[in-house]
Predict the 3D structure of the following.
Amino acid sequence: MSILQRFAPALLLLIISPLIAEFLLGDFNVRQFAYLGIFIPLYGALALFVRELVRRSGRGWVSMLVMALVCGLIYEGLVNQTLFNPHFAGADLLKYGYVEALGTSFNYAAFILTLHTVWSISTPIAIAEGFAGERAREPWLNRPLLAGTGLLALLGLAGTTASTIERYKFVSSPLQYGSVVVLILILTFLAFRIVRKPGFAEPSNTDDHGSKTWMVIVFAFALSSAFMIWFHYAPDHKINSSIGLAVFLGIDVIALFFLSFWSRQASWNATHIVAAATGAVLTYTWFGLWRFVVDGKSAMGIKTEPIDIVGQVCLALALIGVCWLAIHRQTNVRTGPKM
């Protein structure tokens, strides 16, 4: 195995994590690809570092999802501080469901933390592991490279924190910071000390002829699309924020229930994990294009040019192609990982 083949999954994860998190979503356009220099340490390095820690511990996707949530808390509670900044980037992100006593909105928290858990961290990891084939559950980095990846992530987080504070002149209260840190510590403890190491079923002899793969893709796409639509529909139509929050959490619970149920079936294998990630990618695909074509601007307010739409389509096709390749490489690898 060549060096390139050995580290290809890790390099893929470094790149696609920021591409999905910021560009496919429509936060930034192709003319701003230079920002990858910032986003690769911020997203890619952290996703790779977390993935390596989980796999080195011998744990599976339950721990991975919990640590993805930890990453979301780091991003939005400590770095960007959007969980507490009511006017981040000139937007009233906390207006819907704002709790003055806590200085935050549980509605926004449920939305943004799900975004990072599902799209910024878990989806890129699932795709990269699918691409890795039989090495899906193996560590990809040696200890020096793991340390270097962690340092790169730390530098990315620290640099973004400093620039965010300087730009928006906002710092959360010590109580708010402390609350997030405590949550991060508790969740990390759960991921590596409470969650048991998964058992692995024997490879299935049942061939679903791709039917379950497509079912998982459609399920993930439909549910994640409903989640994204509800985020805009509920506040725009002045739906009670408690109802809005209940729907957000309900969608999360439904997703976890069905994925957990399916993962315990004999025919479940690594292909289906990539299929779930593919459905999430398809949701970001239409949502990002909607921003550029219908809204006429990126989430950061940059007016859309024709090249942006062309670039967005090319990016979406490239990422969907990577998903297809990951599914193809896992089709005959019936490892049957359990949730």
In short: The chain has a mean pLDDT of 92. Residues 3-330 form one domain. The first strand starts at residue 98 and ends at 99.
